Amino acid sequence: MSHHLSLDPASRPRPRFLDGAPKQLFIGGEWRPAGSGQTLTTIDPMTEQVITSIASADAADVDLAVAAARRAFESDEWSAITPYQRGLYLSQIADVIEANADELATLDSLDMGGPFALTRWMVGNAIETYRHYAGWPTKIYGQTAPSAPGQFNYVVRQPLGVTVAITPWNGPFLQMSWKVAPALATGNTVVAKPAQQTSLSALRFAELLAQTDLPRGVFNIITGEGGVAGEALIQHPDVNKVSFTGSTAVGKHLLAASAVNVKRLTLELGGKSPTIVFADADLPAAAKAAAGDFLNGSGQSCVAGTRIFVEEPVREEFSALLAEEMATYVTGDPFHPDTVIGPLASRAHYDRVVSYFDVARDAGATITTGGVEDPDGGLFVAPTLVENVTNDARIAQEEVFGPVAVLIPFNGVDEVVRMSNDSIYGLASYVWTRDLSQAHTVAARLEAGSVFINSTAQMSSGILPFGGFKQSGIGREHGTDVIDAFTETKTVVVNL
Ligand code: NAD
């Protein structure tokens, strides 16, 4: 008997879009196979069966896509339109996503194993994101600069040109939207390279664009391996910017590779985010949030709060509450309505995550909950809590990207700030206390791109800037920062 919520395999959803393999590249508004004819299969992590196959692009395909994006960038259809018109295109895109939201979420759940409620929420975030950026083109003001007598000097922002969006497999549709929407709002064109494991929602999105008036070539898709298709994009001399979300290891490589033509770069990388629970916190609320902040998405989330620091006097009480919360995280088929966490995204990733059980034990730590491989042989990992561990252990320092957290007690604010900041990462952080003065003081001292006070992670859909300190990245998505990141500043000096 299965240990997970399961469904009849025959009832597995199969959107019509999946008929007709292999899925092709979307270049200049047309579908075409990879020039080499190579394809890759994409796997459903629930069944570990092939869903379909996609084109595996190489440098020659990338040349075509970048050329198409450049032509579109230079065309009057895109560069000589009003800001209002550009905003309308983004509104149309939001409308077609909304009309097809369930299908796009279904494709993401099939591709990466996330519960449908989660992927549908992520598509909702993407809709909000496009609507947010639909309002931007008409609001990107320049400045008039203080000028000497007889001069009139001003500063304007202009698009960069051809931009590339490279995204990971853990939030496929959402992460692509976070890059494509601001890139288009600022007048750039885009070549998107979704993760090879999860390209289906991006490909369906490209089909849906036919229902909008977006000019051909403004948005293109290259699918394929990171080391081949992705590599060709980051090396390409006619690409002006790469916006990348993924691992810190690949991010470091991109930083070096982008030197070829001094590409603009935004990097959203890994994390090992602290959750800090002070003794005066609302402990039931903190425990509920702490569980969600490391378990949602099976822990395959860059902002996962995987280092839980609890103040010594409430350690036992909080541990018991956390264990109760963790027990409610039921694993199962992503399409079962009661599933809270689905399978991990791939067999390779599962093997990596479960290898951390030994990493924890080898450090002398105790796995107090979870820590066992799936008895059914599926890609499920039970919620896992590691205790009796210090912050310098590998299990407390390395990003596992699975439902695994360490629980470490602390004494006093200085110790917890020091431990929280003792990490190569600095993406998110969570602070639980009823003392708001303490909360703000700690927030100021944390080396993290986001601080959530008495709050679970809030994923921005445009308003709040998002990104990391230290090796969690460079630059920010969203907020006003992203408008700067997708434009050049031009100073114009006029002698009257
Ligand atoms: P990854 O770095 O292996 O892959 C990310 C993307 O980069 C994929 O599309 C891949 O094909 C591509 N890629 C790989 N090698 C490349 C190369 N040489 N040149 C160009 N492109 C290349 O990461 P992943 O395993 O898919 O995703 C998990 C990682 O993403 C985790 O570390 C996680 O923390 C991070 N992540 C970060 C954020 C954030 O916003 N900070 C969000 C989600 C995920």
Question: Nutshell version of this structure?
Answer:
Helix content is 36%, strand content 20%.
Protein architecture, described:
The chain is α/β, with parallel strands linked by helices and 496 residues long. The protein has 2 domains: 9-269 and 473-495, 3-Layer(aba) Sandwich (Aldehyde Dehydrogenase, Chain A, domain 1), CATH 3.40.605.10; 274-469, Aldehyde Dehydrogenase, Chain A, domain 2, CATH 3.40.309. It has 16 helices and 22 strands. It has helices at 59-74, 76-79, 83-99, 101-112, 116-134, 172-185, 200-208, 226-235, 248-257, 283-295, 315-326, 347-362, 394-397, 413-421, 436-445, 481-485; strands spanning 25-27, 30-32, 39-44, 49-55, 143-145, 151-159, 162-166, 189-193, 219-221, 241-245, 264-268, 274-277, 307-311, 366-369, 384-387, 404-410, 425-426, 430-432, 452-453, 469-470, 473-474, 487-495. The strands form 6 sheets. A 7-stranded mixed β-sheet has the order 14-15-16-13-12-18-19, with helices on both faces. The protein has a 6-stranded mixed β-sheet with strand order 9-8-7-10-11-21, sandwiched between helices. Strand 1 and strand 2 form a beta hairpin. Nicotinamide-adenine-dinucleotide binds next to helix 8 and helix 9. Nicotinamide-adenine-dinucleotide binds at residues 166-170, 193, 195-196, 226-227, 230-231, 234, 245-247, 250, 253, 268-271, 302, 399, 401, 427, 468, 473.
Proportion of residues in helical segments:
25-40%
The 3D shape can be described as globular
Question: What's the rounded overall pLDDT mean?
Answer: 97
Question: Pairing-aware structural class of the strands and helices?
Answer: alpha/beta
CATH hierarchy class name of the largest domain: Alpha Beta
Number of strands: 22
How does CATH name the architecture of the largest domain? Answer: 3-Layer(aba) Sandwich
Give a short account of the largest sheet: 7 strands, mixed
What's the CATH topology label of the largest domain?
Answer: Aldehyde Dehydrogenase, Chain A, domain 1
Give the oligomeric state of the chains in this entry, treating copies of one chain as homo and distinct chains as hetero.
Answer: single chain
Domain unit count? 2
The distinct bound ligands, ions and cofactors come out as: nicotinamide-adenine-dinucleotide
Taking Cα atoms only, what radius of gyration do you get, to the nearest Å?
23 Å
Q: Reading side by side through the largest sheet, how are the strands ordered?
A: 14-15-16-13-12-18-19
- Corresponding CATH superfamily of the largest domain: Aldehyde Dehydrogenase, Chain A, domain 1
Secondary structure tally, helices: 16
Proportion of β residues?
15-25%
